[in-house]
Amino acid sequence: MRFPYFATGEVVKGFGRGSKQLGIPTANYPENVVEKLPSGFDNGVYYGWAKVDDGPVHKMVMSIGNNPYYNNEKKTMETYVINDFDQDFYGSNLKTVMLGFIRPMTSFNSIDDLIKAMKKDISDANELLDKPNNSVYKSHNFFKTPQ
Ligand code: ADP
Ligand code: MG
To answer: Where in the sequence is the domain holding 51, given as residue range(s)?
Structure first.
């Protein structure tokens, strides 16, 4: 029911949780995009495809969580695009399609455990997206139309 879920919006500045320092930067969607997310998307890690501006479609993992700036009342949608970019792309358009759920949000005892979990998420997403029922979305019309 929930999947596929298509989203598009500008990449905005996050709140500096230091994702980049962990080697896993997350491109944040603005409030207007997050507000459209239907209820039923529990906090956790999801996988799918992503495209920055008119670049190629890449695999991604997206975490849905809560925004500490708003006493956790508001959600966040943060996408790690599985690709090495030469530079940041704040202000760019980011299109995503979420195709499935990987795991619920949990707290970790150490940064090391957190990084390990994120690496596992990325390798899980990598495998899942190669399955035919998920890989078809890489060439979906959604990614062929502007913005
Ligand atoms: P912020 O708190 O501003 O979101 P992050 O440390 O999470 O800061 O870094 C996110 C930014 O890093 C993105 O907005 C984007 O411009 C840049 N970036 C570079 N490579 C990637 C990538 N592979 N996936 C997501 N964002 C990336
Ligand atoms: Mg971020």
So the answer is: 5-137
Pick the residue whose CA is nearest to atom 13 on ligand 1: 27
The one-letter code for the residue type at 69 is: Y
Q: What's the number of domains the chain is made of?
A: 1
Give me the CATH number covering residue 125.
2.40.30.30
Spatial contact of 9 and 32, defined as CB atoms under 8 Å apart:
yes
Q: Identify whether 60 is part of a domain.
A: yes
Residue 78 annotated in active site:
yes
Rounded CA gap, 82 and 22, in Å? 14
Distance in Å, CA 77 to ligand 2 centroid: 9
pLDDT, tens only, 93-131: 999 999 999 999 988 898 899 999 999 999 999 999 999
Nearest residue (CA) to ligand 1, atom 20:
85
The answer to whether position 144 is within a domain reads no
- pTM to 2 decimals? 0.96
